[in-house]
Structure formats: structure tokens, C-alpha cells
């Protein structure tokens, strides 16, 4: 199966990873080095941001 194309921009992913405190791991090991829990928290945060943006419109 092919790799999926990311919906989130690299800038947004880096911003969220920094906010959640695991961007140092990303810099050292790449995105594959983060924990599943961190990836889930990142998705959850991105959804919260999107919902807030929709609410403000």
C-alpha cells in the first residue's frame, strides 16, 4: 500500500509538536520516532484547532 499524503502542513505539524513538547524527538529521530500517544495528541490538537476556526467564522 502506498504512503498517504499528509493533510497537515509540515509547519503546522512542527508547531503542534513544539506546543506539545516532543519536537526535539522529531528533530533527532524524524516523525517515526514519536510515540503513538504523541501522534494521537497531535491529531486531537489539530482537530481542536480546526473546530475552533470553524466556530469563529
In words, what does this structure look like?
- This protein is mostly helical and 57 residues long.
- The protein contains three helices and no strands.
- InterPro entries: SASP_alpha/beta-type (IPR001448), SASP_alpha/beta-type_CS (IPR018126), SASP_sf_alpha/beta (IPR038300).
- Keywords: DNA-binding.
How would you summarize the topology of this molecule?
Layout: H1 10-20, H2 23-29, H3 36-56
Helix pairs in contact: 1-3
In short:
The chain is mainly α.
Label this structure with key terms.
57 residues; mainly alpha; 3 helices; 68% helix; globular
Uncertain residue ranges:
none
Helix content: 55-70%
The counted number of beta strands is 0
Give me the strand/helix succession: HHH
N-to-C terminal Cα separation, in Å?
38 Å
* Largest sheet data: none
